[in-house]
Amino acid sequence: MSNPTISEDAVRHAAKLSRLSLTDDEVNLYTEQLASILGYIGKLEELDVEGVRPMPHALDQVNVLRSDRENQGMANQSALANAPDADPPYFKVPKVLGDGGGA
Amino acid sequence: MDPTTTCLITLRDAIADRKASATDVLDAYLARIDRHNTALNAYRELIIDQAKQRAAAVDAGEVTGRLAGVPIAIKDCMCHTQGTTACSSRILEHYRSPFTATVVTKLEAEGAVVLGKTNMDEFAMGSSTENSAFGTSKNPWDTSRVPGGSSGGSSAAMAADLAAATLGSDTGGSIRQPASITGTVGFKPTYGRNSRWGLVAFASSLDQIGTFTRTLADTALLSQIMFGKDPRDSTSAAIDVPQDLHDIDADLGQGPLRIGIAKQYLDESANHPAVTKAFNEALDIYKKLGAQIVEVDLPHTEYGIPCYYIVATAEASSNLARYDGVHYGHRTTEPTPEGENAIQHLMSQSRAEGFGNEVKRRIMLGTYALSSGYYDAYYNRALKVRRLIAGDFETAFQHCDTILCPTTTGPAFKIGEKADDPLAMYMNDIYTVTANLAGIPAVSVPGGFAEEDGRQLPIGMQFIGKAFDEKRLLRIARLYERETNFGQQRPTMDPFAEQRYWSPPNGL
User: Cis before residue A89, ω within 30 degrees of 0?
Assistant: First the structure.
């Protein structure tokens, strides 16, 4: 983290993990902008955080449970109502397996 | 009395006393929206049919409650079964929610009439609404300036009296910053007070729903109705809500009033001179009221923004993974290659087309901060710094009841002024972001005006309080509001602004 620059390859990798198609121009732009932002975030290195307990959440509550009773779930029709493509009762996606199957 | 320029409680009472019909009130607001929304772009969508039915039901006595007939607006990231819930993003442009957010349901159960959805920065990421896919909202005090963000449509609507109250969400300052620069009251309660069920998630450990109002009394009433544990949101807090929360003018009790001030908020080279002056005047008001002024130290304040931009983007990168072009939202129409990469292509292309630049930037930053090899250096370190920031407040509140500080360093900036510089934009939240990281409540109250280009532009004073002690926080802030009343001043939006064409029935 002491070197805040980020390479184009790292941006392409983050984009791939994020499932975002980027143009080459966008890769250039984000490489520059993310380097600048990460440079600023490098400020956190000034602090000694040895032994400090991480704080992922503002409330300390854990394991909120509800009683084990059946609840009315969302109707299939409602769940599919906003789908870009559906074949009730399923969501529809492009074919992912070749004709030979056996993936 | 014009129903669009009175406060919510007075309007509510007028309807309850049958001095005004809910339908007439609604028509007055719709006429005002019709007149001003083109210039302000405060509303992204109106839900007129339902609003008219609800108002008629109030007039028929079928709908009653503490907000019967009161027209309100909700931010576009709050689900409602009427209309679309777009989060001001192309990716959700046509999304129709099968349910309504809990806090909105609670307000409607008390008779509130929802007018529509207000514009915002896409997925609540921004400080100006310039990141909305549906155009920038304008500040009613000067339409060449931003109304703040991300809840900028809600602040603009409130400032221009296009609703009696509006809802916003605040992840790093997204209610308080826009309230400050539009001259409205903006309140972010303690994390966990308001249910987040039905709020489109940005950063789940920071997001909190809150209100924009004309007065603190209106804020307290809405909070009384909205607060509480919701079985549908496991992060909502099972902590009792005081029954007299709404009673804003009640005695403070609990011994002497101690106002904390911290040098970290009072850098005269950072703050506009009018902000420094307004702060000192606020301090004088409390001194005259007999309050003790206590200097407190919040040494980690300057690490708030870098800490926030790791925590918030990490959570966002995970939350926004749900927009996959499969279950709901935009799907690319580009032909998808068959085979094992088909789904990845479909998702990557749909997301690239559906998300705007700032959202993409934050998803990638968050993904990077969580990725193998960087997790400890960025995300885990940020969580530790977050603990230090929360600790600063815990120590400070051993010595004071509330911390008084400016909400923003200055008044509204010009549209386009910071649009190309993400870091400059992020600095807008410098005085607000630590309250989100610590999870504590804070309210911005109109604090007067700063002159820029010959115009009077609003600025805000912020009161930061102890977790779950909103009652005392709002009552302390009320002492300032009572002495100053800056919130009663209105922008002059156009030459016709004073010529309201709604004529009050029965001499109201």
Answer: yes
Q: How far is CA B97 from CA A9, A78, B260, B300, in A?
A: 38, 9, 44, 40
Give CA–CA dist B226/B338, Å, rounded: 49
Judge contact between A27 and A8, C-beta under 8 A.
yes
State CA B159 to chain mean position distance.
Answer: 13
With left for phi above 0 and alpha for psi between -120 and 50, is residue B69 left, alpha or beta? left
C-alpha to C-alpha distance for B480 and B446, rounded to whole angstroms: 10
Active site residues of B: 75, 150, 174
Q: Which residue of A has its CA nearest to B370?
A: A14
| B109 vs B20: CA distance, rounded Å | 20
Nearest chain A alpha carbon to B84 = A82
Do A44 and B336 make contact, defined as CB atoms within 8 angstroms?
A: no
Residue A89: alpha-carbon gap to chain centroid:
27
A69 interfaces chain B, CB cutoff of 8 Å: no
User: B105 to chain A, minimum CA–CA distance in Å?
Assistant: 18
ipTM higher than the 0.90 cut: yes
Question: Coil, strand or helix: which one is A89?
Answer: coil
CA-nearest residue to B95 within chain A is: A82
> Which amino acid, residue A52?
V
pLDDT in tens, B450-482: 999 999 999 999 999 999 999 999 999 999 999
Nearest Cα neighbor of A17 from B347, B453, B436 is: B347
**Best of A5, A23, A41 to mutate (most B CBs within 10 Å, chain B):** A41
pTM of this prediction exceeds 0.90:
yes
Q: Are B118 and B151 in contact (CB under 8 A)?
A: yes
> Contact, B385 vs A49, CB < 8 A?
yes
